[in-house]
Description:
Layout: H1 7-14, H2 18-26, H3 33-45, E1 74-78, H4 92-105, E2 109-113, H5 118-121, E3 130-136, H6 141-150, E4 154-157, E5 167-171, H7 173-186, E6 192-195, H8 202-217, H9 225-228, E7 229-230, H10 237-253, E8 260-263, H11 266-278, E9 288-290, H12 297-300, E10 307-309, H13 312-328, E11 336-339, E12 342-344
Parallel strand pairs: 1-2, 1-3, 3-4, 4-5, 5-11, 6-7, 6-8, 8-9
Antiparallel strand pairs: 10-12
Amino acid sequence: MSKKVTMQQIADYLGVSKFVVSKALSGKGGVSDATKERVIGAASQLGYFAQKNAYVKSMNLEQLPKVPASGKQSVLVLMPNIRFQTKESLYWGRILDGISTCLEEDGFGMVIVSEQSVEHFVHFLNPNGILGLIGVGEISTPLLLEVHRIGLPMVLVDHEDMLIPSDTVFANNFESMYRLTKNLIGIGHKQLCFVGDIRYSRSFQDRFLGFRNAIEEMEGAEQQREDYLLRVEGYEHEAFEEQIKQWAMKRKKLRRLPTALLCANDMIAIGAVRALQELGIAVPDDISVTGFDNIEDSYRMEPALTTIHVPKEALGRRAVERLMERIVKKQAPIEKILLSSELLYRDSTAHVKNGAKQQ
């Protein structure tokens, strides 16, 4: 039997006091965010969180009243990155729709929280009748640690934290992008470029890895990383448009434009199509463009966007189902659930013309 990892071992590993480690892991104040992140990282590496009852719980959930004043048990939905992860989002909003619909069908309520401060967030963790938490999108490690420390059942949608163990629900990003890339290679595309910031999210990273695997399997593949990856940042297609336009202008002068742009999501792809059209580069006659997610704007634009349909409502529903399973079987193995996505071939992609050269 392996020995239990103690707070003292974590302290010795980091060269700090046991008091500092205890403060960081208990969720109490008096420790900087940077120190807290170091403690969480070290604790995870040493296997501290994998132990049963390893962290101090500030409350006993079993002793809480199960029925709130409204007479309905509820699930806390945490969606803290309010800059773009909102109910109005064509992507995140549909995931929320799936969560709320499934909860309503099962007779449960939903409390949406967009708090990013750990100190303020803890006030939401002890209301009557809260069954568990569903995290939607990117959530900071300190917030997840607080949920984990208390012992509240938790499921994350489209996000995972390597330091905090949790059930997660994703679209099958790697396989879907791999299949899309292989399809474009099959219709003659040899110079392809992935457009997106792979540091933005785990989903973007997995989509890039699927793209890269397909590229590396391509016969005679000799592209360098700078040729098949374009990093762009932002949240709306207007933000991506200018970045892609400047990049395309330089590549056009050098006659090094790719024949296809595979974008990390539809917003980036919409910006890419508009940028290329402003430069007189025809889509798909000169360059094919693909997206990912299948938001409503993807089929309303001209040309309609080839993309991958992510079952957004189903992601929300599956998160609710997994949370209920976790509530019943608290000691069951943690699961990473992948939902299949569908490739939708529309007008923004085409075969490479015979004898076609880079612009």
